[in-house]
């Protein structure tokens, strides 16, 4: 896509991340999510939560704190939900 002169927008990144984690491609989804966040585009809470849980399911728990911090910043009003996700990782 990029090589043909198209530039992805936030919706493109969010859709890509969503379909990647749904397909079990958690590490690739993480790379795309990080690229998106570098552009200050943070996916919705449910996408971030699913990605964090997916990473935990494949023992990539070390990657989760960075995403959790982004969730806390972006979704400050959802602090309780962020804490629940974090607590779930500790179990």
Automatic annotation (TrEMBL):
Domain of life assignment: Eukaryota
Name the record gives this protein: Uncharacterized protein
Originating species: Rhododendron molle (Chinese azalea)
């Amino acid at each position: 896509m990029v090589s043909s002169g198209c530039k992805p927008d936030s919706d493109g990144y969010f859709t890509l991340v969503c379909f990647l984690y749904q397909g079990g491609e958690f590490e690739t989804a993480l790379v795309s999510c990080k690229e998106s966040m570098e552009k200050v585009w943070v996916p919705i809470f449910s996408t971030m939560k699913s990605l964090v849980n997916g990473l935990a399911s494949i023992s990539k728990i070390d990657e989760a704190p960075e995403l959790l911090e982004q969730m806390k910043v972006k979704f400050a009003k959802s602090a309780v939900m962020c804490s629940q996700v974090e607590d779930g990782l500790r179990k």
